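User: I'm putting together notes for a lab meeting next week and I want to include a structural view of one of the chains we've been expressing. I don't have a solved structure, so I'd like a prediction I can at least talk through. The sequence is below, exactly as it appears in our construct file.
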Amino acid sequence: ASSGLFLNDGTTWNTHVIWQNSTGGFNLQISLDGQTFQPEQPVKLSIQPKIGSPLSATTEVDSTTGVVMLNIFYVSGVNNITMSAVTCSPNSDKCNTIANCYLPTQIAPSNFTGLAAVNVNKAQDWRVYYHDEDGYISELQGDNSGFNLGKPIGGSGLNASSIAAVNVNSTTNNINIFYVDGLTQALFKMQFTADAWTKRKNFPPTASQINTLIFALSINRLCRSHCFLESQIWTWCCLHGNSRSASCLLHRTRCRYL
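Assistant: Thanks for the context. Below is the predicted structure for the 258-residue chain, given as structure tokens.
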């Protein structure tokens, strides 16, 4: 994950890059001029990440002190969305973790969720997006006083796929979310403007995505036909008083799980 910002002088650009190392921890590298990077450094965490955790990051700068705050969002080893707040001295790569906490959710994240976060209102005010266990894109809202439990905002996302979010205007909060649709596997976009989410829009599918959809539909039809045949056998068993036999129960079970 990466995040960047202009410092209070309006011209100096800082870039922060975070990645997961082979042991599961996080490393951080900072560019103080937008061109060259300082040596990597470990991020101190009290809540250990899941191996292969998705990552997202936001940054903001204190208008008075010039201290940069880096906020890292990830999934913990027990599958909770987690936030780590790291502060960095002005014009320096000397950083320190000041907080590390779970973000409670009304609907738990899926085991292979994507993750994206943005700043809003040019402040310590965040929106975090993830795949929930019901298969939808959910949003957490929070600021430096705490987070809510979140809610689904729509869109059936493809589990294990990435989510990207960008706040085009952090004053009016024009948030755009990009994700892969769970059925068509096409790229979709949702947009938040005027305090409401607009209807999602899809991008033209590739030939591969079209072929995947056709295959999925054909399998669905095949399963439905098979289930119909199994149900007919089950009905025959009922009519002939053999519905509790092992062979008849097998046909019922097969249909139930298709």
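A couple of points you could mention at the meeting. Confidence is low (pLDDT under 50) at residues 223-258. The CA atoms of residues 92 and 125 lie 24 Å apart.

User: Perfect, that's what I needed.
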